[in-house]
Amino acid sequence: MKNFIAGKYIQQTEYKSFSPTLINELAINWKSDKTLELWGNAKRYLGELNAYSSLIPDVDFFIEMHIIKEATTSSRIEGTKTEIDEAIQPESRIAPEKKDDWQEVRNYIEAMNDSIKNLDKLPLSMRLIKQAHQKLLFGVRGYGKTPGEIRKSQNWIGGGSLKTAKFIPPSSDNLPDLLSDLEKFWHRQDIPELIRIAIAHYQFETIHPFLDGNGRTGRLIITLHLVDLGILSKPTLYLSDFFERKREEYFDALEDARKKNDLESWVQFFLDGVIQTAKKGKRTFDNIIELRKEYDEKILTLGKRAKLAQRLLTKLYSNPVISPREAESFLGITPTPANTLLKAMEEIRMLKEISGQERNRIYILNDYIQLFKN
Fold this sequence. Notes:
Blueprint: E1 7-11, E2 16-20, H1 33-55, H2 59-77, H3 84-87, H4 99-118, H5 126-137, H6 175-186, H7 193-207, H8 214-228, H9 240-245, H10 247-259, H11 263-299, H12 306-318, E3 321-322, H13 324-331, H14 335-347, E4 352-353, E5 363-364, H15 366-371
């Protein structure tokens, strides 16, 4: 990567846009000592994280919460303020002034879930990504900027106009060639998968193919790529938390690759993110296993209600908020036993009531939610 040339600036009418180098045909020598070490560790920790997908029963319930956390974090990088506690709530419980941010997060969750399902029918491709992008922007900020369509006009990053922009991506005229090249690079075989994913993320963010939503889309692609390549059997790794905590380093590393041709530092930053995030993901799964044991022991103290409580708990692992009416519907019971069950689960400190009201009460699986907030 020492000989990497990121691209060149092209004079347009009143500004210069950056035209990145096509990457699919590049000879990329990535085997520096530091990169090799990071790559080896990233592969190892990803393998250990992936093992939880087969070790934990009903793992899909827990993965839903991972997706919710990713959605809130990735959206927060773009300026939304919805937290996990709000993201798990239905729209009817969201304050009017917070609904736009809440909807952006819910769109991200839907886009991720649908894209993972669609990988069974479609390879990782711009067709798949355009479908995800359309869902991301549906009915929210950016909806008027052709969601699901490659831009036909110039966009920019930072600043209020092209004249004050921090970075101006390539002209829309160059996008067909750049995106075709990127799509081929996604499936290139002679570069290790994690190195390829790192370079592909840099290239996607540099191309910035949509008028809006490029950041969220680019981070979503990382997880899709990991699943598509079979590195992960389930979507259990999300880098947005790492990027959000190291926001300035994240943007600086992308910018240095473009301005200083320093692709290697970006790849190393990315691999370090994979390592740290995989380690954190393992700790979360270990904590889930321990908490699940505690819950199972507590449920045994509920006597005749234990069976219903166990059924309800399984539902709460994927959506850890519930009202008495929702419990009635899910369990097929009448109001009195539903209220009694929820209060009993509150008394043994499984559930926490958060409305503070006598009527229309809301319960959350609080200790479980906290595992995803750390």
